[in-house]
Write a structure and sequence with these properties.
Blueprint lengths: L7 E4 L8 H10 L4 E4 L17 H10 L7 E4 L11 H20 L4 E4 L2 E2 L5 H16 L7 E5 L7 E2 L3 H10 L6 E6 H7 L6 H11 L5 E6 L1 E2 L10 E2 L8 H9 L7 E4 L11 H10 L13
Parallel strand pairs: 1-2, 1-12, 2-3, 3-4, 4-6, 6-8, 8-9, 9-12
Antiparallel strand pairs: 5-7, 10-11
Bound molecules: fe (iii) ion (FE) (2 copies) and zinc ion.
Length: 297
Amino acid sequence: MEKNKNIIGAHVSMKAPDYFIGAINETLSYNANALMFYTGPPMNSRRQPLEKFKIEEGLELMAKHDLNPGNIIVHAPYILNCASPEDHKWKFAQEFLVKEIKRCYAMKSKYIVLHPGAHVGSGSEAGISRIVEALDNVLSQDGTDVKIALETMAGKGSEVGRNFQELAEIIKRSKFQERIVVCFDTCHVWDSGLDLNDIDAVLEDFDNVIGLDKLEVIHLNDSKNPLSAHKDRHQNIGKGHIGFPALQKIFDHPKLKSVIKILETPWINKKIPPYKEEILALRNNDESLLPDNSKPE
Ligand code: FE
Ligand code: FE
Ligand code: ZN
């Protein structure tokens, strides 16, 4: 890949029979140079043994195509709740994350994207304390450089991380600040109430509250809902309420050049991945290259 090229990829699947090799091949089919996957079903925590993942072959395939393993993102299952007031759930999340870090390390991935958690009525202050303790427990158990990227949330239910302040608080209170960064999800940030049409103001806010050096992953998604909807429903690039110009500006923003960008937009008619065309349209700043998802099935 050329040096100054934007780093962009999509949510790909890593499943039987090809696992990691399949994820890389899917990435290549989108002309992407980054990728994100769950190491198993996102809604549960059953995982295959690492030996099954075909890691060595996958890394060879990446090298052959000049893909940087540093651009591999792993998304933790969204059922983990590091903010849970219930001990068994809280401990379970930690045990899973310790193992997930080992999987990441084996695949040379540098980031686990994590939904901070939901306080389920205990209050965001209590939720934040639980998260800090959970992450400190997890990060004290390995000597790797794998980072946890806390995702900005839309603010539905009792989600923690619905604003920059909450994420800043978690990072500030951790003993492992250097290993906690932020994944900025455009759909979630929009749904939480920040107008991405003024991305410079949003980034200034991010810089003041968290520090822009902590922004290491972007989930680039349009939103099915208007500003401040607190919903979290992703839409294809240019087909939602954020719109192509605002998303394109984020894609090309000079302050975000080195940030890994991942598309998590829906498949067209649940059948066809839109990523090859969405990446092409963003790279060329040309909305007409976006896939046509207006056709009925
Ligand atoms: Fe997520
Ligand atoms: Fe996301
Ligand atoms: Zn989402």
